[in-house]
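Residues and backbone
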Amino acid sequence: MRALVFLAMLALLAGCATTPPTFNAEVSVRHQMASEVAGKRFAFKRDASQAQSLLQRDVEHDVAVALEGYGLVQESSPARADWLVELAYGVDDGKTVTYNQPVWGTTYYTYYRRVYSGNSYVIVPYYYPSTEVVGSQPVSETVYTRYLAVDIYDRKALARNEFAKLYEGEAKNRSGSGKFDNALPYLTRSLFQTFPGTAGTRTVRLPLPPQP
């Protein structure tokens, strides 16, 4: 009985220790901006393929909200902007990866007791089932990289054909899902967790809603 109680407690503790799901992004940033950016006016710089794209508008909206959170002001006309913001985003074709997955099975925990039988004691084994890793098997899956890249240019320097880039940042997420739309809010939050932030590469983990 004690062994059964012990196993039940282990199962309960294992359930409590389950790690909540997170969205993991690798964020890389380089910039030559002052730490104070509030008040700067920005507009989006689009190529021909982006000008009539609904997805482009959705990405612009999320990025604009993030920049406005740091005190920047969006301009509808690039001619009135201090900065031009260029976007790149999407999902790659995926890469097949193979790894070993543990195989769980039932084993038995053995417990011995001395039992009095007439005029002597005998040793009686008791067997209790236990779930453990009993082996492994190779598993292959496709991993997609979903990304959001943001480049910011000084508009006046760009017009003079001078070096104009002030900021380049990118957030990447690797996932078994090739869908971009549901990753966009998390990529944006990961990239703009700080702005302009410290140059370098970091990992950002954002909590995901629990699965039903």
